[in-house]
Fold:
Amino acid sequence: MREADLGEVMAIEAQAYEFPWTPGIMRDCLRAGYCCWVCVLGERIVGYAIMSLAAGEANILNLCIHPELQGRGLGRKLLNRMLMLARRHDADTAFLEVRVSNEAAFALYDAAGFNEIGVRRNYYPAKEGKEDALVLAKTL
Structure:
């Protein structure tokens, strides 16, 4: 991902999430040197992933496929790419958070071998206050 991609990335983010990240957050991730990748079909960006790496740990901060293309295996491919990059950077564990209500994402992560290790209470904004996040981990 490059700064020039942020317009397309933010359009997907806005369609996929009720409470999307801001362009500033995305830009900060790029500037911090996080692993920021886009998923491209033809010449169109259809998804993206952002991962931080430090102290032998990979934290998948955001992984998203355009809502119209979800359920076609693109999320799995993008997740596998991020896990491969984590291993290349000598990470031994990958972590992420997922909304408790996001059953499709949880199924993806479960199928990839992630295990629930905790709950972050009131982690995500929601229409009626806050929503819990499941904390997932996978040994690499």
Remarks:
- The first strand starts at residue 35 and ends at 41.
- The mean pLDDT is 97.
- The helical segments are 6-16, 23-31, 74-88, 103-111.
- The chain is about 30% helix and 40% strand.
